[in-house]
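Tokens as discussed.
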């Protein structure tokens, strides 16, 4: 089966493997999504965010394709997603605040950067995908303690790493090539290398 982010040619009608920033955490049940137009405007504002600009600059320097074609406002099942050849989707039906849009965009841009810069990145390979999720969740600040407090998780020592693992595992669950056991093993196997690989940032935010 052809896949959106397998890197090969062609693209079937199949949804394919998606590398997504999950939104399956129990936080949004009662929060209304913003109107689509507002979300599109929010994406435009997010492009001015310093971290987003920094990632764009690094991608341009590396000869990667950047917007406008890279990013689309969409209706989809997670918070966002990235797939090779398809670019970044921000799932506007899940966005309630500007901050969420910016956050999703930074997370997915890290995947896009990696996909462009890393040679032979294979999303079907659990270890490759695990590495990218570890980096995206760590470097985007998805696991910053303020966000964890909003999700109802207490800040305790070492919590940031637990959060990165938890969220990486959730994203890997969407990858049909990684069973839960394989996903857990992959996360552990690549953890030290990928958690400490902060490119293109000098260090984690
Ligand atoms: Zn991700």
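Sequence:
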């Amino acid at each position: 089966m052809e896949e959106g982010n397998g890197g090969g040619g062609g693209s079937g009608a199949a949804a394919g493997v998606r590398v997504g920033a999950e939104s399956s955490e129990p936080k949004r049940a009662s929060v209304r999504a913003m109107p689509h137009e507002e979300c599109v405007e929010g994406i435009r504002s997010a492009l001015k965010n310093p971290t987003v600009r920094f990632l764009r600059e690094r991608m341009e320097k590396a000869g990667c394709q950047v917007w406008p074609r890279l990013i689309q406002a969409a209706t989809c099942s997670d918070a966002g997603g990235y797939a090779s050849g398809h670019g970044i989707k921000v799932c506007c039906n899940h966005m309630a605040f500007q901050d969420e849009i910016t956050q999703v965009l930074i997370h997915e841009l890290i995947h896009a950067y990696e996909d462009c810069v890393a040679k032979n990145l294979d999303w079907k390979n659990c270890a490759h995908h695990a590495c990218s999720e570890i980096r995206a969740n760590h470097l985007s600040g998805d696991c910053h303690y303020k966000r964890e407090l909003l999700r109802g998780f207490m800040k305790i020592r070492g919590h940031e790493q637990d959060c990165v693992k938890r969220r990486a595992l959730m994203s890997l669950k969407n990858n049909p090539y990684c069973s839960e056991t394989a996903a857990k093993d992959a996360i552990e196997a690549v953890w030290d290398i990928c958690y400490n690989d902060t490119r293109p940032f000098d260090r984690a935010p």
